[in-house]
Amino acid sequence: MVRTLPSRRRLARALMLTPLVALGACKPAPDTAPPEQPTLSLKTATAPSGAKVEPAVYSPPLSTAPGALTSLAPLVDTVKGAVVNVEVQARARPAMGMRGLPPGFAERFGLPGGQSPFGGGGAPPKQGQGSGFVIDPSGLVLTNNHVVEGADTVRVKLEDGRAFEAEVLGRDALTDVALLQLKGASGNLPFVKLGDSDGLRVGDPVMAIGNPFGLASSVSAGILSARARDIHAGPYDDFLQTDAAINPGNSGGPLFNMRGEVVGMNTAIIGGATGIGFAVPANLIQALLPQLQETGVVRRGWVGLAVQDLTPELARALRVEAAKGAVVAGVSAGGPGAKAGLREEDVITSVGERAVDSAGSLTRAVALLKPGSEVKVSLVRGGKAMEVPVKLGTRPTQRGEEEMTPRDATPAPLSKRLGLRLSEAQDGSGGAQVVSVESGSAAERAGLAPGMVLTQVGDQKVSGVAEAAQALTAAEPGAALLLRARVPGQDGALLRAIEVPAR
To answer: What is the pLDDT of residues 327-382, one digit of tens each?
Structure first.
């Protein structure tokens, strides 16, 4: 069973001592310099003296005597100050009973399947622990989404004893990544930088630091065991696998290369973590950071296709010479792919600059692209190679997924005045989508409901949140505004009228 690491402190009886296994006496091959990576758009900080604050980067010795053991102590000393302990607490929630636990909850906390830890009474406050690491001296911290999801308060403790309250700037449940901002940080915190996870090779040495079972600043080491692992945790699985010891409490902690760069974020284990742990690649995190910092949510490109892997049997049946690719099994009506002319039985071999060798690689390649951008899709149709330009839409939230609202989605006065929260339409066709409607509000009385997409407010056609919000906030108190809306997946438009209350 694959599971994400629980952030709750286990009882001391859960700790088991195991024999120490030497990593070996061979000198590791020196890492080759990775290709230059784009600079993150993070805030620049200076120390109180005015000097620039630099990330913690370890410079390994140029040579070591053949056969000598290489100590990791200098590397640990260089980077451990940027690894933090993340403590979360949430308000008590009503108990759900023996059979009402969310999927995986009992297993995550070590309970017998389906057993309620709370008996018949109300649930106690949720408390938990995880790990994280500082990526900017101003106090930006990366951790796992499952560590801070649902938390009312987040407190971060540094290795030097300092502690800060933290704000959750952004979360992405589909990749289990969250970004925190420490409140009142001095601007000269120790920090580490993200490295190039694509430059890792299977067999390269790696090191993990975290807080397993609440044991702060625990260090473990091993090698990269495998790349691009799909453990069926989500649609964008592309995990690094390592045999460095990863345990409950390591969630959100860094996986380092031997230069002190973070190449992954530890997030999942198999069973009892018997030498099999998984980390989110640093390059994937790096691609998400700008959106998490700017809006707090991740919006992904979307083509609107159902795809499956190309097999040798399908290749022969479809008369294509390609050995790898993604076969289009279905096309969403009205979606970006349908509008671009993509068809069932097309074999997609690349998207933009990225080769596509499976259905999963196509999903990941499109998800890294910006909604609204145009990309060339290379495919084989009827034995002929061709390129099709596709304008990407925004991936809609799937059933069972949490609907995330950008921090700047709806101006506060609009939300308070009308009881309405909006976001950009997720189907990529323009308009302002209703995210939530407050009970008893003007929006509820008007018959608006989450999922509807506003395309007209009064006499004005609206193509997004900004235009819809401007038209709604400019309305005179007491006015009745005509709204035109559509429901994704349904034909025709709905007419609604909203009465604007006094300011």
So the answer is: 999 999 888 999 999 999 999 999 998 999 999 999 999 998 988 889 999 999 98
Tokens read off for 14: 């859960």
pLDDT digits (tens, 9 = 90+) for 438-471: 888 888 899 998 888 999 999 899 888 888 888 8
Q: For residues 366 and 303, is the Cβ–Cβ distance under 8 A?
A: yes
Catalytic option among 136, 172, 176, 346: 176
Q: Which of 7, 146, 197, 220 is catalytic?
A: 146
Residues 6+ apart with CB under 8 A from 103: none
Q: Is 164 helix (H, G, I), strand (E, B) or coil?
A: strand
- How far apart CA 351 and CA 326 sit, in angstroms, is 11
Is 232 known to be catalytic? no
To the query of whether residue 251 is one of the catalytic residues in this protein, the response is yes
With beta carbons less than 8 A apart as the criterion, state whether 300 and 366 touch.
yes
Handedness of CA 351, 354, 357, 360 (dihedral sign): negative
3-state secondary structure 7-54: CCCCCHHHCCCCCCCCCCCCCCCCCCCCCCCCCCCCCCCECCCCCECC
Interacting residues of 200 by C-beta distance below 8 A, sequence separation 6+: 206, 224, 227, 240, 257, 263
- pTM for the predicted model, two decimal places: 0.68
Please confirm, yes or no, whether 373 is among the known catalytic residues. Answer: no
Catalytic-labelled residue, pool 218, 220, 251, 423: 251
